[in-house]
Amino acid sequence: MANTPITIAHGDGIGPEIMAATLHILKEAGARLDIEEIEIGKKVYLTGNSAGIAPESWESLRRTKVFLKAPITTPPGGGFSSLNVAVRKTLGLYANIRPCVSYHPFVPTKHPVMDVVIVRENEEDIYAGIEYRQTDQVEECLKLISRPGSEKIVRYAFEYAKKFNRKKVTCFIKDNIMKRTDGLFHKIFDQIATEYPEIEADHRIVDIGSAKLADTPENFDVIVMPNLYGDVLSDVAAQIAGSVGLAGASNIGEQVAMFDAIHGSAPRRAGQNLANPSGLFHGAILMLVHIGQQDVATLAHNAWLKTIEDGVHTFDIFKEGVSREKVGTKEFAEAVVARLGQKPETLKTVEYKPDAGSAASDAKPIYSSPERQKKELVGVDVFLDWFNGKFYGVADELGALVEKVNGEGLKLQTIANRGVKVYPNGLPDTFTVDHWRCRFVSDAGEGNTIDKKQLISLLQRFNDAGLDVIKTENLYNFDGAKGYSA
Amino acid sequence: MANTPITIAHGDGIGPEIMAATLHILKEAGARLDIEEIEIGKKVYLTGNSAGIAPESWESLRRTKVFLKAPITTPPGGGFSSLNVAVRKTLGLYANIRPCVSYHPFVPTKHPVMDVVIVRENEEDIYAGIEYRQTDQVEECLKLISRPGSEKIVRYAFEYAKKFNRKKVTCFIKDNIMKRTDGLFHKIFDQIATEYPEIEADHRIVDIGSAKLADTPENFDVIVMPNLYGDVLSDVAAQIAGSVGLAGASNIGEQVAMFDAIHGSAPRRAGQNLANPSGLFHGAILMLVHIGQQDVATLAHNAWLKTIEDGVHTFDIFKEGVSREKVGTKEFAEAVVARLGQKPETLKTVEYKPDAGSAASDAKPIYSSPERQKKELVGVDVFLDWFNGKFYGVADELGALVEKVNGEGLKLQTIANRGVKVYPNGLPDTFTVDHWRCRFVSDAGEGNTIDKKQLISLLQRFNDAGLDVIKTENLYNFDGAKGYSA
Fold first, then answer.
1. Is B457 exposed, middle or buried (0-12, 13-18, 19+ CB in 10 A)?
2. B139:A140 CB<8 A
3. Average pLDDT of A283-310?
């Protein structure tokens, strides 16, 4: 079989040691790899490259499309941006996958039975970091959820479940509150789930779902989530499994994929043959399956499980009474190599199914282009910066001012403050800040279409009235259904 | 001492039973209360009142300003809105406080040492639910964080810590990503913390903070958070403490405060003298401290702890080998009453400090009105709905179209898609959806002021060019510092 070209980076701190150990195991397990090396991290940052990766390195990544990355050190002081963010954004790595497994009784955990995979959307949601301050008192951040972005991540989760023999995919969302954004994610989850009848699909509201995950992780399998929830819960899951030092991750794009350990470069442990190479090793296992070398992944992973089970442990997981032999980085790798061909007895054996050529015929487009719905402009929310020194009982005063800009077919319907309606007929108990949403609809009634020229004239009238418009959000119907919240 | 008027509601399901048990303990402990009763919940919903509370009931709440509420049942079928949301919004209850305590070895938990209080902001953040669909592919939700809103909740957390003898307040935020919104919350936390030198203050990034909380809750004391994080982590904390059925909560406004159990009305258990009244009882303890009856709270709470310690347990926490006597709702209340004056031996005794008249002199305004900063309009982000059927490599085409609307002192600076810059000099790997942000600044350079008329003309030119503007966000400097993200 032909070798697969991959790109690797040795990284900083303990990076070179754990990379050497990982590659040694892979080689002895018969991995069929042609390895290109690139330089990333501290050295590159210190040449004045603020992203920590040289421009020519992108060529290698775009050529091999597979990147096994050791942890790096970002130098102290400002001006350096995150290498992971640069790689993710540049290469469009939309999926972050983190398996969180406990190895009871060989590694201490409060959760003896735990084998959860967090699949996190990694390009959108509120983590796009689009923020504005437009009044004295209020800061705003935009949360964006897209149909194709959600399709990509949800489909990836189900394909992952299929490839790794998983039984269930759970979706975490908060669509009782965020009916449109999280509602879209949920709707797409339900649609795509029907294409995988052999895999169980369910969903949880993120608050109670998180509580159950933290308490009884044994009831979960694969969990797919928008970016923010995934960020928080992938850290929760790794921590409670007791496996932060043992876990690997993959970052998947349409073209390129990156594999790494979830821990950092631990500079204090560097150069002492101390570090545990297991995190990067698990990243490499994910890589082997990704490139179709399931046979090698199965062989190497079972040997690793047997090593852990035999009590051959590096310092970080060594525990008197549980462990049998404390070893260094190199010796740990040798112990795994010595067990190639063996399987664990207590821990669960792994068996990665070969794709057997069916992958290609099964392949579905990862996002769709359904026919566009009919979009009609039916109003506008005009946001004002307005403050008269008081936090209570001022909405009617503002209402009277805003009523004056009615005209040319548009009329003020409501004014709201932080999502609570305050005009007309507001309540005296409502605390208001200096950030007001004035909703205008057709004076023929809500739902009637208006045109852009009416909006522009409205903004002109606001300006003439001396009212400080800070932002606008147009209101649309799609195929006749409201596209905006109350 | 004069009695304190309070309003109570018996609720639905197990509500009446646990309310009766709670009031019995309070009475025997010497609580000085004048009780007004209101009707809420199922019966009220079924009269056609969609909020589950009659208009005249608000008068009682506004008069007594203290509400002890049993759980209610929302009838099946749509059209009923959440009573809790109605009460919170109407009365401006900005703080949700949930103590999460484990009672090892008397109630099973994986976390024997846990005594955490979650203080959740309850009016703003992304939970305002302000959402828009403006393109075929993208949904948007606005996250709003205000200075006075953050001041209120952070100050409440520190005042709570002071009143309840707590040593540390931790702030959870994600301000490495949301530098402006979560950054504001963090900045206010740091400012207010300096006014409480006797209380330790620290902060955690919400991902790793959540992981640590789920794994080692014994290291946390009071945690204050924006709405979303607080929602998720208050559920996580209650669940892992093993105390969902035992926990109470308070909801605090500037005028009115509401106290309740965190569990629901459990209709299947109703009318059988089975239910555990401890959740509502703990809500009542918070109420007693709130109204200055610390002596009664101390007496009743210690008797409750002694009852739990003596193994007198309702069915929900009864466990062979740990519990000694399985009792019903009424008998549990009697057991607590019989122990009034006793203190626990294994569990920690509680001792609520009397406010001793110093509260009034210590009182600080809960939000400030600092001098307004100088605000200058320096640009605008114009968002477009644009799609030519492709998800890659189309930004330059759009860029050429948008360059044509430059003029009258404004020029296109960048185009971004879901927060990633795609024009000029975008990358071919970047996946783009139909939602584009076009940033315009003064043609004299970014940071130069512009005026509203220039913005209105720009929108006119967009319209003339046939480009579909869906929303705008103005860009401002405050005292010369940028008020917007890159």
1. middle
2. no
3. 97
Burial of A32 (0-12, 13-18, 19+ CB in 10 A): middle
Tell me the C-alpha to C-alpha distance, in Å, between residue B225 and each of A7, B111, B258.
Answer: 42, 22, 19
Interface test with A, best of B74, B177, B383, B453 (most A CBs within 10 A): B177
Question: Between residues 426 and 465 of chain A, which touch chain B (CB distance below 8 Å)?
Answer: 427, 429-431, 433, 435, 437, 452-453, 455-456, 459-460, 463
Nearest-CA distance A440 → chain B (Å):
14
Stretch 26-55 of chain B: residues touching chain A, C-beta under 8 Å:
none
Phi, psi of B55 (to 5 degrees): -55, -40
- Which residue of A136, A141, A373, A392 to mutate against B (max B Cβ within 10 Å)? A141
Give the ipTM: 0.94
Q: Are the beta carbons of B427 and A90 separated by less than 8 Å? A: yes
Stretch A353-372: mean pLDDT: 64
Query: pTM of the prediction?
Result: 0.94
* Type of residue at B298: T
* Residue A352 DSSP symbol: P
Q: Is A418 on the interface with B (CB under 8 A)?
A: yes
Percentage of residues of chain B with pLDDT beyond 90: 83
Question: Within 10 A of B359 (CB to CB), how many other CB atoms are there?
Answer: 13
Percent of chain B predicted with pLDDT > 70: 98
Residues 6+ apart with CB under 8 A from B280: B18, B19, B22, B68, B70, B71, B248, B260, B261
Q: Which residues of A touch B139 (CB under 8 A)?
A: 144-146, 180-181, 183-184
pLDDT at A358 over 50: no
Q: Tell me whether B192 touches chain A (CB under 8 Å).
A: no
Q: How far apart are CA A263 and CA A257, in angstroms?
A: 18
Closest of A240, A209, A219, A118 to residue B236, by C-alpha: A209
What are the tens digits of pLDDT across the range B42-72?
889 988 888 889 888 999 999 999 999 999 9
Among B126, B153, B240, B475, most A C-beta atoms within 10 A, so best to mutate, is B126
Q: What confidence tens digit (pLDDT) does each residue in B423-472 have?
A: 999 988 889 999 999 999 999 999 999 999 999 999 999 999 999 999 99
Residue type, A407: G
- pLDDT at residue B358 greater than cutoff 80: no
**Contact yes or no for A215 and B181 at CB 8 A:** no
